[in-house]
Amino acid sequence: MNILLIGSGGREHALALALAKSPLCERLFTAPGNPGTATVGENRPGLTVSDHAAILGFCQAEAIGLVVIGPEVPLVAGLVDDLKAAGIRAFGPSRAAARLEGSKGFTKDLCAERGIPTAAFARFTQIDPALAYLAARGAPIVVKADGLAAGKGVVVAETMEQARAAVLAMLADEGAEIVIEECLFGEEASVFALCDGTRAVAIGTAQDHKRAFDGDRGPNTGGMGAYSPATVLTPAVEREVMETIVAPTLDGMRDRGTPFVGILYAGLMLTAEGPKLIEYNTRFGDPEAQVLMPRLTSDLVPALVAACDGDVSGVEIAFDRHRAALTVVMAAAGYPGTVVRGSQIRGVEALRDDPDVVVFHAGTRLENGRLLAEGGRVLAVTALGATMLEAQARAYAAIGRIDWPEGFCRRDIGRRAVARELAGDGI
């Protein structure tokens, strides 16, 4: 079949590599794509993702058998609804089901309704009640913008001054809404589930690194690196997550008449009381896809088709259990704030022959044969290894071969997994 992949980031480059390997994939198009996706398929940079009519026309003209939507914005905008209405198979949740990511308040209400373990919370649209709640709860506390914010609409306030500033900033615009929630303590990890509206199949684990700087300091970002598997998630804990968090979520969405189909990405805090839901994403994570896809040993396309067709009961997603993957994001100076675009990146091509390293393009463009930075998160350098320590060493060795003075990265991605491994608890 012909497949259309929607998106332009590192996640889409990773998905493109996995989709292109499938015997079922005859032609792979990516819209708009990036220099990385262009190496494994055909980019369509002129196809505007927000123009649903243009997407539909392209699918009909190119006999697209499956559309895979990478980022959250087109999901929340209802692209899946419009494609399905035209009889085109599309992988991802409907607009209504994508509210699990599109509205943090919606998800928190669902958790309360279904008894899903999560942080204590309250929702606000007015500044004064929000400030009064802060005064009553104290710091540390978490303030979240209700809608999509590219992973940057969260402030983990360590002081009341930080919390008040976050409330004032997030509620400055008319119609804004926030969630204020208890600050959970523990280790973060993520579970990914393939869902068909009724059933869910666990398809991997990862751990992201959200803060911009080493030691988990600095502002939240879209993610500065990740590794897989998340060894802190034992099989018993993963089963608990599927039973107490994912399953009741699917039940709640189905009972609302908005069944969830697609990837449910549960961001978790592993607390002393057990795993608790921090938030949901309704698609493959970025940069988590960049460590999940390189470890994938089974065909991704039949699994996505099975979810679209409403039955994942026979799906088995297999990963290389003897290999760990670790990715380090290289970002433009200033990220997650204002960045300068257009700086040249050298050395990426020289890494293409390394079988244990993949450089995923996240925010790049080609101009007259030169690779240029075109965004905040620019590259995701992924390495594989028999151990997490080996994968980490290979990733940072590869970064050492990339010449990009205007970029930066964290130097401690995977430190928890490596520490566990050195203590005898590895993959």
What would your notes on this structure say?
29% of the residues lie in helices and 29% in strands. The protein has 13 helices and 23 strands. The chain has helices at residues 10-20, 52-61, 72-76, 79-85, 99-102, 104-114, 127-137, 160-170, 235-255, 289-292, 300-308, 388-400, 415-422; strands spanning 2-7, 27-32, 42-43, 64-69, 90-91, 121-124, 141-145, 154-157, 178-182, 187-196, 200-208, 211-213, 217-220, 225-228, 261-271, 274-281, 324-332, 344-345, 357-361, 364-367, 370-373, 377-385, 407-408. Strands 10, 11, 14, 15, 16, 17, 19, 22 and 23 form a 9-stranded antiparallel beta sheet that branches. A 5-stranded parallel beta sheet has the order 3-2-1-4-5, sandwiched between helices. A hairpin with a 3-residue loop joins strand 10 (187-196) and strand 11 (200-208).
Provide a quick synopsis of the model:
The chain is built from 13 helices and 23 strands.
Task: Kindly list the characteristics that best describe this protein.
globular; 13 helices; alpha+beta
Beta-strand portion reads 25-35%
Number of strands: 23
Q: Distance N terminus to C terminus?
A: 36 Å
| Secondary structure tally, helices | 13
Gyration radius over CA? 21 Å
Tell me, briefly, the overall form. globular
Low-confidence parts lasting 5 or more residues at pLDDT below 50?
none
* Amount of helix: 25-40%
Can you give the mean pLDDT?
96
Question: How many strands, what sense, and barrel or not for the largest sheet?
Answer: 9 strands, antiparallel
The structure class reads alpha+beta
Describe the secondary structure blueprint for this structure.
Layout: E1 2-7, H1 10-20, E2 27-32, E3 42-43, H2 52-61, E4 64-69, H3 72-76, H4 79-85, E5 90-91, H5 99-102, H6 104-114, E6 121-124, H7 127-137, E7 141-145, E8 154-157, H8 160-170, E9 178-182, E10 187-196, E11 200-208, E12 211-213, E13 217-220, E14 225-228, H9 235-255, E15 261-271, E16 274-281, H10 289-292, H11 300-308, E17 324-332, E18 344-345, E19 357-361, E20 364-367, E21 370-373, E22 377-385, H12 388-400, E23 407-408, H13 415-422
Parallel strand pairs: 1-2, 1-4, 2-3, 4-5
Antiparallel strand pairs: 6-9, 7-8, 7-9, 10-11, 10-15, 11-14, 12-13, 14-17, 15-16, 17-22, 17-23, 18-21, 19-22, 20-21
Helix pairs in contact: 6-9, 7-8
